[in-house]
Design a protein that fits this description.
Layout (H helix, E strand, L loop, with lengths): L1 H19 L7 E15 L5 E9 L3 E3 L8 E15 L4 E9 L5 E4 L2 E2 L4 E3 L2 H17 L1 E10 L4 E15 L1
Antiparallel strand pairs: 1-3, 1-10, 2-9, 4-8, 4-10, 5-6, 5-7, 5-9
Length: 168
C-alpha cells in the first residue's frame, strides 16, 4: 500500500509542476487592428514607371496607436485603396500586383482632380492577398507598373481593417 501512496504523491507533483509551467505571458487573444500605409511615388522623365515597395507587419496597429511585439495571426476584414495624383499631372494607366500571388488591380486614366478610391471586390481580393503575404512572410511586396505625365507625383494608400491574434 505504501508503494501506491508514494506513486500517487509523485504523480500529483508531476501534474502540479506541469500545469504551473503555463504562464500568463503565453496568453493570446483576438482583437481589432488596422493597417494604414502610404507609398509616395514619382513618374520619371521617360513617362513609364516600374517600381515596387514593401508593406511590413510593423505597419499594423492595434486599436489605434498601439503596436504589439508579437502578432500570432492576422485575418482580413475589409479595406480600400486610394490613388492620388499631384502637381496637375495624370496617369495614363497603372497596374498594381502583389508579388507571389495572382492579385492585380488595373487602372486607366487618373487625373489630378479625380483621385480613385477602390473598394470593389477585386480590391478586396487584392488587399486580402497582401495581408496573406504579410501573415506568411512578415511583409508583402507591391509591384507598380504604368505610364504617366512627366514628373507627376502620386500616392497609393491602403487602409485595411483586420482581426489580430496578439500576445497580451
Amino acid at each position: 500500500m505504501k508503494k501506491y501512496t508514494y506513486f500517487a504523491v509523485l504523480f500529483s507533483l508531476v501534474v502540479l509542476f506541469s500545469f504551473s509551467s503555463c504562464s500568463k505571458d503565453d496568453h493570446y487573444y483576438w482583437d481589432r487592428g488596422r493597417l494604414d500605409y502610404t507609398a509616395e511615388l514619382t513618374v520619371t522623365t521617360n513617362k513609364v514607371f516600374q517600381t515596387s515597395f514593401r508593406v511590413y507587419e510593423d505597419n499594423i496597429r492595434l486599436r489605434g496607436n498601439n503596436r504589439y511585439v508579437e502578432i500570432h495571426d492576422i485575418k482580413f476584414i475589409s479595406g480600400y485603396s486610394d490613388i492620388y495624383v499631384y502637381t496637375d499631372g495624370y496617369i495614363d494607366w497603372m497596374d498594381l500586383r502583389v508579388e507571389g500571388t495572382n492579385a492585380k488591380l488595373q487602372y486607366d486614366v487618373i487625373h489630378f482632380d479625380f483621385p480613385v478610391q477602390d473598394e470593389t471586390d477585386q480590391a478586396q481580393y487584392f488587399l486580402d492577398m497582401m495581408i496573406e503575404q504579410i501573415r506568411r512572410y512578415g511583409y508583402a511586396t507591391i509591384i507598380v507598373d504604368g505610364k504617366g505625365d512627366i514628373d507627376s507625383d502620386y500616392d497609393i494608400e491602403f487602409g485595411v481593417d483586420l482581426d489580430l491574434y496578439v500576445r497580451e
